Amino acid sequence: MQVPLIATIATWLAMSIRMSIPLLYPSLGGLLSQKAGVYNFGLEGMMLCGAFFGYWGSYKTGNPWMGLLMAVACGALLGLLLAFTSIYLRVSQLVIGLGIGIFSLGLTGYLFRLFSTTSTGDVAPAAPLFPKVNFGFLKEIPYIGEILFTHDWMVYFALALVLVIAWFFYRTTPGLNFRAVGENPQVADTAGVNVILYRYLAVVISGALAGMGGAYLTVTQTAYFTENLSAGRGWIAISAIILGKFNPWGVLLACLLFGAADSGQMQIQFMNLGIPYQFLLMIPYIMAIIAMTGVVGKVRSPAAMGKPYIKN
Amino acid sequence: MSEITATPKPSAPFKEQLIQFARKNMGLISVLISILAILFALLIGAILMALADINPWEAYSYLIKGSFRNRYGFGETLTRFVPLLFSSLSFAVAHKSGFFNVGAEGQLLMGAVGAVLVGAYIQGLPPVVHVTLAILAGILFGAVWAGIAGLLKLIFGSNELINTMMMNYIAILFVEFLIHGPLKPADSYLYVSAAVLPSARLPIILSKTPLHLGFIISLLVVAGVFYLMYRTPIGYQMRTVGANIRAASYAGINIVGVTIAALVTTGGLAGMGGAIELMGTQFKIVNGFSSGFGYDGIGVAVMGRYHPVGIVLSTLLFAIIRVGTGAMQRGAGVPFPLLNVLQGLIIIFVIASGYLTNKLTETVIGGRA
Amino acid sequence: MKKLSFVLLVALLVGILAACAPATPAPTEAPKVEEPTQAPAAAEPTKAPEPTAVPTEAKQYRVALILNTTIKDGGYAQAAYEKLMELKEKYNLEVSYQESVGDANVKDVLRNYAAEGYDLVYAHELYFQDAVNEVAAEFPDVKFGISGNKAEQPNVVAIDTTNWQGQYLAGIVAGMMTKTNKVAMITVSQSPVALRMVNGMYSAAKSVNPDVEFVHLFTGSFDDVVKAKEMATTAIKGGADIVYGNCGMGTTGVIEAAKENNTMAIGSVVDRNPLAPDLVLTSNMNDNGKYLEIAVEGLINGDLEWGKAYVFGVKEGLEKLAPYNKLVTQEVKDAVEKAIQDFKDGKIEPPANDAYLWEKK
Predict the structure, then answer these.
(1) Where are the domains of chain A?
(2) Looking at this predicted complex, what is its ipTM?
(3) Which residues of chain B from 249 to 278 reach within 8 Å of chain C, CB to CB?
(4) Which of A253, A300, B7, B112 is the most exposed, having the fewest neighbouring CB atoms within 10 Å of its CB?
């Protein structure tokens, strides 16, 4: 049975969207935090905690909404830890992020062992998932239907979030303040903006979004949790922020690109073209480096990023 | 921890004495604060273990025994020490020169690639020459890999933290490609590189342990880096650029030249670490060759407050933890994830305790340490 | 300040040296010295005094297990860990294990166990076989086991399954059951082991269905369930109507993809039918825990030949198919029975492991 090329492309695009969403949530989170001047290197750990608590909450209550809620709460809590250490204690944001990563890997692995006592061959307890949104006849449109109308609500929510965040940053006063806090906290402070509060809020929301990204994996994609389920997606999200030039729309495109490269790699394997897959997977990283050079438009990170703010 | 913050409280002359004491012993005090933070993390870990029906005393006794019960554990600890030391030195030199080099992981891998090319494919060299050449190849590969990120910063002003991070992923994928094809011996059943020849392996310096010559080399390198950074004009210039690039430029320092020197040093150190790990312990590259040495190096350097002595101490701590947690699994049956929790807590608490040290330094010295 | 730190460092190093100096001659780390805590039987472990009796009183054996992934990986490592716990009860063993051991420190873990006087140190990971053989040479009195195919020392035993005979049986099912004549296999890598699995399954399917086509996809990860699921979806959208998953935890994802697209699937390692009873035709089961059991019982009963690589397959019952689901017809079952008989008669040759059979001329 030969599948026409256009159908393969449709499958690939639909898959690219699915693979990019677990990057998009933490990327948007990281974007918020970086816009306010704080690096969030804890995204991976926050995602992993989100993935576990999403699974656990969904299983325990039989309701994926509860799982999602727990994931968001847990991500926010880790965000608060990062905010406290980097804003109040003013210690290395990078290393605390690494610490949160190891801590979360251990914590989720340990809780999972306490929770799941099944032995080899038994079916691990499956948590209920969110159903796909039923678009009725729209789904039947050839190709377009598969690409756009076969997803669950969290996909569309993530896209809406991009819109909201873009609107917030560039069209509202708090959004402007937000950016000012990351660009020039002294000036923002003089203008009466509560720099510390904004930064706390940014990092906590950032954690919540990362937790949501982790939960996406376990409340929509797979009904099971495994140790290290997030498999480095939180780190790739950081790359996506840069590749997206610190702009919500750019971040969306960057995540789509990462998703497309990963699923394209699968298609190329499937078509057996004989290109070493490692090179394909390198493309987004190389593109991020090129994006940073400014050859295709300058990337400028918020001026005060990574620098703790000390009120004079 | 609270005793230390509370010290400058009593009456004036006594307070003055205390400040005098603190000023003289800041190094000691910062080590003590870190130790207290570790104890605090261990205490939380103990509670978690107790909840898991594990005797914390027994478990922690293995943490120590892993490194100090016998000769082998001691040698093992110092063997782990070596690659960690190189990657943390790499991060520290970069930091002192005004860089964020989080790319030690990639540079270390590329260094190992350089060493494997020389160590496995060039035949018939006397050991001394072969080892030297292989290490130089490692330094070269690491320096070039870091140099790419550095040149991008110099030419385009792009953020080197992100670039070195991207270069890590590229290096990991590139090495994966190499061991799937070009570097894989034809008869190999597994994805591995060719093994370095016996003439390019580092000799064992403590019999019945894995401790190899790389340990001595690493100590010499610490001394060398210390000398370079604090006793030579170029080191002074690197630190000046790192502290305040504008002032350095007013002072007539050749920023480009100094930056390149800093890059070569930071990448070369990481690459050398990879080469020595390859030639001293593993002999061939497999997936997971590094086991996170590059990332741990960042934590080590920050905990060691970028000071050579501090770095040696914190590297030792990390090596003891790496070896000790293995012993805790084997001896006391502590579940592996719980050990990750413990390590995460130690990192978070020690780094957070840096706040106290900073605060105290500000109080007693009235500015920078 | 610098001076003081230096003094402190020196003091610490001296302290460390002092602390370990008295421990140096401890008997635990001298490989050639017989363990004082052990019964005299330790001198000749290959010949236990009474091979048939359960030797609980004679000697408590100490067995160590080294794993590359975690004891909760749902397959390979977990099977060995559970077997270890089972054997502990059965033979009153003293056991220990270390999980998530990487290539960087596996030799140290092996040496630590050997030096601590374990009777059997078993590494349950193919990639550890060079390390096991290297360390075994240093500890001639300790027995080592490896789940692999290399036993170069007289005190090492290598145990593995063929890793293709089970797939061969599954291939017969796949070849006869596919309607689109397209079958997809999803594994972790493209290693020679994986290639032989693929070729085994392919040659079997080809033998019963000359029109069958195969595709092979690999995830590059043992635990990325989401990626494995997407890969299986790619294959299903590309026309495959049977997906076979053998990619660690990812196998679950493969079956989830089949469930979502209402496509048939074949599982691996353990019986995956309960994940989707209507769709999972069968699973090729590999009894990975059995390797450890063979090594431990061989140690206790003294009936295992050390220095030898054992390979087990369908004939010995270490590779077999799980119970079929209701879709599988009697005709298919008979064809599988015939293949099992052929294996017992030694009629089927191992397939190539260097390239895909369908690419070979």
Answers:
(1) 3-292
(2) 0.90
(3) 277
(4) A300
Q: Which residues of B touch C113 (CB under 8 A)?
A: 330
Q: Which CATH class is domain B56-358?
A: mainly alpha
Domain boundaries, chain B: 56-358
Q: Which of A119, A223, A231 sits opposite C224 (nearest CB)?
A: A231
Q: Does B102 touch chain A (CB under 8 A)?
A: yes
The answer to whether position C22 is within a domain reads no
Architecture of domain A3-292: Orthogonal Bundle (1.10)
- pLDDT, tens digit (0-9, with 9 covering 90-100), for A196-240: 999 999 999 999 999 999 999 999 988 888 888 888 899 889 889
Q: Are residues C352 and C249 in the same domain?
A: yes
Residue C154 tokens read as 């007289």
**Number of independent structural domains in chain C:** 2
CB contact under 8 A, C28 and B73: no
| C209, C244: one domain | yes
Q: Which two tokens stand for residue A73?
A: 């709460």
For B320, which residue in chain C has the nearest alpha carbon?
C16
Tokens 């039987």 — which residue?
C41
Q: Tell me whether B26 touches chain C (CB under 8 Å).
A: yes
Cα–Cα distance between A69 and C203 in angstroms, integer?
50
Taken in order B326, B331, B333, B338, is the CA torsion positive or negative? negative
Q: Is B291 on the interface with C (CB under 8 A)?
A: yes
Pick the residue with more confidence: C170 or B369? C170
* CA gap B180, B366 in Å, rounded: 57
- Whether C199 maps to a domain, the answer reads yes
The overall pTM is greater than 0.90: no
Q: Are residues C201 and C157 in the same domain?
A: no
Q: Tell me what pLDDT residue C32 has.
A: 37
Q: Does B156 touch chain A (CB under 8 A)?
A: yes
pLDDT at C135: 94
Coil, helix or strand at residue C281: strand
> Hey, what are A270's tokens?
């499937």
Q: CATH number of the domain at C231, please.
A: 3.40.50.2300
Is C6 inside a domain boundary? no
Residue type, C130: D
Q: Does residue C232 share a domain with residue C351?
A: yes
C-alpha B156: how far from its chain's center? Answer: 29
Distances (CA, A) of B252 to A32, A265, B232, B247, C310: 39, 51, 17, 9, 72
pLDDT band for position A245 (cuts 50, 70, 90): confident
Arithmetic mean of pLDDT over chain A: 88
Average pLDDT over residues A134-159: 88
**Taking 90 as the threshold, does the pLDDT of residue C334 lie above it?**
yes
Residues C266 and C334 in one domain: yes
Question: Chains with 3 or more CB pairs closer than 8 angstroms to A?
Answer: B, C
The dihedral through the CA atoms of C258, C244, C268, C204 has a sign that is: positive
**Residue C280 sits in which domain range?**
165-285+329-360
Contact B329 C99 (CB under 8 A): yes
pLDDT tens-digit profile of C60-110?
A: 999 999 999 888 877 788 889 999 999 999 999 999 999 999 888 899 999
Cβ distance of B351 and A85 shorter than 8 Å? yes
Residue of A85, A93, A292, A301 to mutate when probing chain B, most B C-beta within 10 A: A292
The per-residue pLDDT for range C172-197, each reduced to its tens digit, is 999 999 999 999 999 988 888 888 99
Are C148 and C170 contained in the same domain?
A: no
Q: Which chain B residue lies closest to A83 (C-alpha atoms)?
A: B352
